[in-house]
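Worked Example 4.2. Consider the chain below.
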Amino acid sequence: MRINRITGTTPGLIAWVCAAHVASMLCYAIYPTLLPQLQREWGASNSAAGLVSGMFFAGYMAAVPVLAGLTDRIDARRVYFFSSLLCALGGLGFAVFAQGVWSASLFQGLTGAGIAGTYMPGLKALTDNLGDRAHSRAVSFYTAVFGFGAGFSILLAGAIAATLGWRWAFALCALGPLAAGLMITLGLPPRRPPAAVRAALFDLRPVLANRAARGYILGYAVHCWELFGSRSWMVAFFVFSQSLSGGGPWPWSPVLIAATANLFGPGSSVLGNELAMRYGRNRVVPVVMLCSGLFTGLFGVFSDLPWYAIAGLSFVMLILHMGDSSALTAGMVVNSDRTMRGASMALHSMLGFGAGFIAPLAFGAVLDAAGGNANPAAWMLAYLSLGAAGALAPLVLRLR
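Applying the procedure from the previous section yields the following structure tokens:
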């Protein structure tokens, strides 16, 4: 009864689902946070280390058409609970069995598949319990706390690994998805799909035929290319920058800077959606994408600056990365067919996290090809490979 009272109002429901969303993501950023340590321990190349990062997104991309698409047919809570167990299994499996690149890739893939069934199905469970007028801001807050989840995952992983070792970091963070599954299952009322679904589970053609939603889906893929590519290598870049510093150890560790940078994202995401609602998504989103792309492309140039300058610039980069996140997802939700909303979310996430799969791999490959992660020019080119897509995307989407 107590939970029902909390989730019985719109603000309470949004807060409850957002809290579960943060808990569900505690496994999300463990590997990127510990990438430098694990890369050294396993003797992995930059490309191999990027492969492990990318396998998270590969698992997500493979699972999301099924798990998010099922929410058009069955209660989203059931999909969410199963997926939270899958995510926890990935974290625990990594903690116990990971011995190198290939075993780590397997469990990163399982973790990604689990988050595929909590991220968009969690949003579906939230919107199923709200009126249409509340959707845009609810989507804004829900997608914004993705940054909080990422930040807490980085902080917890770094703190636990520093005291108990990296295996305990994966094991203890796996408790987060388990808690999230229980929160959604016990805290939300059961819901049935609103109507019979016209298309087959894997038939995404009706979604692609929706021109209004399609533009936001393609824009989200570009957003994820920049965001997940930079997040996957952020701690490693800070470690490299720290090695160039002639002023001794940094007062803030690379892990703390990365975690703090991610905490700037949620406010930016909400503000971006509010501006988009006021001035129009088709005006605001391209401007944010262009600024984010240009800044990301230049970020690698700053590797030899003082630590506080690099930290401040990373905050700006995350603010720009997240400035269009909620606006893009809210645009997709608002413009999607109600009976195909789960399928629309599936395609939205599949393309977005598909770009997130390729981006860390491409980043690592550019590092290797340009001289390795001890070469400043290699980092410049790697960040340029991320930013170019964001800078060019508004023009391409406008032409289409």
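The chain has a mean pLDDT of 86. The longest helix spans residues 211-244. Compare this with Example 4.1 before moving on.
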